[in-house]
Design a protein that fits this description.
Subunit structure: Interacts with the cytoplasmic NapA precursor.
InterPro entries: Chaperone_NapD_NO3_reduct
Family: Belongs to the NapD family.
Distance between the termini: 13 Å
Helix content: 10-25%
Largest sheet: 4 strands, antiparallel
Strand order of the largest sheet: 2-3-1-4
Mean pLDDT: 91
Protein name: Chaperone NapD
Function: Chaperone for NapA, the catalytic subunit of the periplasmic nitrate reductase. It binds directly and specifically to the twin-arginine signal peptide of NapA, preventing premature interaction with the Tat translocase and premature export.
Order of helices and strands: EHEEHE
Radius of gyration: 14 Å
Shape: elongated
Length: about 80
């Protein structure tokens, strides 16, 4: 039996006055990690067991107050052998 690991990265455009709140809320998402940021943009990396979990997290980020857009710029999936994490 094999599992999948999906990884995606997003460019998230944020209203400057909402950046601190948006950063805090994204860091609270279990599978999300902030990779880089400036005063209006974040790069977010999300990992998950399937494409649906990634899309759910992207929808969550898109719905945050202050987020202008969350655009996927990279997606990779790979099969994991049993026992791999």
């Amino acid at each position: 039996m094999s599992n999948e690991l999906h990884v995606t990265s997003l460019i998230v455009q944020v209203q400057p006055d909402k950046m601190a709140d948006v950063r805090q809320q994204i860091m609270a998402i279990e599978n999300a990690e902030l990779s880089a940021n400036n005063e209006v943009k974040l790069v977010v990396v999300i990992e998950g067991p399937n494409q649906k979990s990634l899309l759910d997290d992207i929808s969550t980020i898109n719905a945050l107050p202050g987020v202008l857009s969350a655009t996927m710029v990279y997606h990779q999936s790979e099969e994991l052998e049993e026992g791999e994490i």
